[in-house]
Amino acid sequence: MIYTLGSTFCEARSYQMSDVDQVQKSQPSPSQSHDDVIAQFKWQGKQIDWLLQWLVKFVANTKVELGVTLSVGGNLVSGHLISHDTYFEQLADDISAPFSSFANGTDATMKEMILSFKPGESSEDTPAFHFIHLKDCRTYSTDGNPICDAGVLWRGRISAVDGFTIGLIAEKPGVS
């Protein structure tokens, strides 16, 4: 199947991963040594939601931006899911901006340094992503009040996400 997103074409692939498969794959086998099991759990950390990981990879490959709301440690984080490339480009602009008043090219150096952290081109063979990036992000505490409502750039570990929904949290009427 081919889906059209604006001018981008995406091929839908059949992924043979379910929640049951993920749990079974994360279980240590009886033949593994204690050190292998510890290394496996250190590598895996908290179990990663394969669907969220796929969504992050989809956004990275298509450059689509998608509104999401994440549950992270009891707080809600709501923003536009962006690719890692877009994240690092915006981060480089934000960090280098204060240095533009210097005449010695410090801003360009800072921007170049931040862009050097950007991962290479992604493809279908790219290993799974472990970080999620949002722009125009707002964080809400458990009482519903915004902790950060300015709309910031945000980066977090996918393994730290407890749950997610597609869509943004709507602002309360009369609240800015």
From TrEMBL:
InterPro entries: GvpU-like. This is Putative Gas vesicle protein.
